[in-house]
Each structure stands twice: as C-alpha cells, then as structure tokens.
C-alpha cells in the first residue's frame, strides 16, 4: 500500500510479502491445487482487513503466471472476488514484464539502457528499455517450475542440475533472441530469488532491503552463491538468516536462472532492485496527478 503524490512519487505505507505458492504443481497437472487456492484466500483475507483499516481508495489485484496456465483459473477468480471484493486481473506475460520494468527503473541511479529480468515462481520476464519499454517477453522458467521439473533431490544431484541448466539456457537464449542481444545495457534483477542471492553475496546477518536495493553483485559472486545453494540441503539453506522459509526449497533454481542469464548475456554484474512489479502495479492503479492511497 502506498501514497502517490502529485509528482508521481510513491511512498510506502506498508509492504507485505507472503509466499503462498499458488503455482505449486501447475507445470505437472495444469490445475491450481485446492490447498494453494486456500493459502491465497487466507492471505487475501488478511490483506483485506489491512486495506480497510488504512482506507485504501483504489485496489488492483494482479494475477500472473500460475493463473494464466491453469485449467481451473475460474475457481481462483471467484475466490478472489468473494474475499477481496475486487476481481483479479489475469495479465499477460507482456503486461507483467512492463509493470516490472516500470516499478524497477523509476528512481534508479544506474544509467540505462536496461535489461530488466524478473525471476518469478512460474515465469521470468525480460524487458529492454531506457526511459520506457522497447521490447519485452515472458518465458516459462521460474524457481518453482524449474524445481518441480528438475531439482527433485535434497540437495539436487549433478544430473538434475545439468538438466535444469540445459532447460534454462535454451529458454534464456530464446528470450534474448526476442528482446535483442545488444550490449551496453545494465542488468537489473528483480524479485526474491535475486534479492536473496544479493543478501547472501553481501554476507548480511539479517535481511536489509536498504542495503540490497541497488547493490551491484558480480557474476563471480552470483556463481559462488548458486553453487553453494545447489550443494546444500533445504535444512542447510534455512540456516542462513536472510533466507525466507518459504523460499528455501526453490532458491537453488532461482539462483541458477540468474547465473545462466548472466552467462548468456555476458553481464559482469547484476544490480539488485527491491522495487519491482508491486511498484509498477501501484503506479498503474492511480492517476499520477492525484494524491491517493
């Protein structure tokens, strides 16, 4: 939840993250699991109380990869409308990419042009632009999808890792062909996989968004963190104080996706951003000339 002033600047009132794993099993079954829909309902019920308490004037509920792919997406939409009072907008991968780009680059100190990558659970968005979006594509690689598809061991075996890497590399190459492989772009990484890798690379003893935001993480550090995560069990990953409990089982795949992107683009570093699709959605939900929440 945020206030937006007349100049279009966002001021957070509250920023909450709950990992509900809506896409759990979708890659295998093509359907949203009833337990996953219920986890979303519980989270939305808490959000609804908070929205009412703070007097939100406009609410936008955006649903992404899992709800695009699922055969029973209507069950999810009905639940959201009953719980939140607002129907979910199941956006395209292209719109998801554009919202992520907008949220990430406003106020960014690193100069453009940019390649923004948003590594989600079911998909990853690639967006190229400077002051605005020039090209964008969404592809079906994400930390949950790749874990469920390939990384079944705890920790995963070398064969599982090799299969995941080959799958990710082929998909990343297709994405880069779609957005163009031109050089001179700053690589900006969004979402929890990237920020967790950044926190681990920085050696933080607690999750500190202000230190993570706009941190420059080298390709060598990303490769080291990725190897450490893929070589560790879920229990061992949970020993890191910056690790969100809901991310520990899929962070290896998320880090692998980031590492492969850096290898295929030749990027020597990634800039981690704490501003992402949430900020883009907030910007899109208001008329910039009007102060509102």
CATH architecture name of the largest domain: 2-Layer Sandwich
Q: What does the radius of gyration come to?
A: 18 Å
What name is given to the CATH topology of the largest domain? Nucleotidyltransferase, domain 5
Summarize the helix and strand pattern as letters.
EEHHEHHEHEEEHHEHHEHHHEH
Task: Name the average pLDDT.
Answer: 88
Distance between the termini: 7 Å
What is the tally of beta strands?
A: 10
Detailed description of the structure:
- The protein is α/β, with parallel strands linked by helices and 293 residues long.
- It has two domains: 2-92, Nucleotidyltransferase, domain 5 (2-Layer Sandwich), CATH 3.30.420; 107-274, Nucleotidyltransferase, domain 5 (2-Layer Sandwich).
- Helix content is 47%, strand content 14%.
- The protein has 13 helices and ten strands.
- The chain has helices spanning 26-29, 34-54, 65-69, 73-84, 93-105, 143-149, 158-179, 191-202, 209-212, 219-230, 234-237, 251-265, 277-284, and strands at 2-4, 10-12, 62-63, 89-90, 114-119, 124-129, 133-139, 186-190, 216-218, 269-273.
- Strands 7-6-5-8-10-9 form a six-stranded mixed sheet, sandwiched between helices.
- The longest helix is centred in the middle third of the chain and has 22 residues, at 158-179.
- The chain is globular, with a radius of gyration of 18 Å.
- The termini are close together.
- The relative contact order is 0.16.
- Keywords: Hydrolase.
- This is Hydrolase.
Task: Using brief descriptors, characterize the structure shown.
single chain, disordered C terminus, Nucleotidyltransferase, domain 5, 14% strand, 2 domains, 293 residues, globular, six-stranded mixed beta sheet
């Amino acid at each position: 939840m945020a206030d937006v002033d007349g100049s279009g600047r966002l001021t957070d009132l509250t920023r909450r993250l709950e990992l509900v794993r809506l896409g759990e099993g979708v890659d295998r079954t093509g359907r949203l699991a009833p337990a996953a829909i219920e986890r979303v309902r519980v989270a939305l019920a808490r959000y609804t109380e908070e929205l009412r308490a703070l007097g939100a004037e406009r609410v936008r509920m955006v649903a992404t990869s899992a709800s695009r792919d699922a055969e029973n997406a209507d069950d999810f939409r009905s639940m959201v409308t009953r719980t939140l009072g607002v129907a979910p907008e199941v956006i395209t991968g292209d719109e998801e990419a554009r919202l992520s780009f907008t949220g990430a680059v406003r106020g960014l100190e690193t100069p453009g042009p940019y390649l923004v990558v948003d590594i989600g659970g079911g998909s990853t968005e690639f967006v190229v632009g400077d002051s605005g979006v020039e090209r964008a594509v969404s592809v079906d690689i994400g930390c949950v999808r790749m874990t469920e598809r390939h990384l079944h061991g705890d920790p995963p075996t070398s064969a599982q890792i090799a299969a995941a890497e080959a799958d990710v590399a082929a998909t990343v190459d297709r994405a880069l062909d779609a957005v163009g492989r031109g050089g001179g772009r700053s690589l900006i990484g969004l979402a929890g996989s990237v920020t967790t890798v950044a926190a681990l690379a920085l050696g933080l003893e607690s999750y500190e968004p202000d230190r993570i935001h706009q941190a420059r993480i080298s390709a060598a550090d990303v490769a080291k963190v990725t190897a450490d995560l893929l070589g560790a069990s879920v229990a061992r990953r949970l020993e890191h104080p910056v690790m969100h409990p809901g991310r520990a089982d899929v962070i290896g795949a998320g880090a692998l996706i980031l590492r492969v992107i850096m290898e295929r683009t030749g990027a020597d570093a990634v800039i981690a951003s704490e501003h992402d699709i949430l900020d883009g959605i907030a910007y899109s939900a208001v008329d910039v000339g009007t102060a509102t929440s």
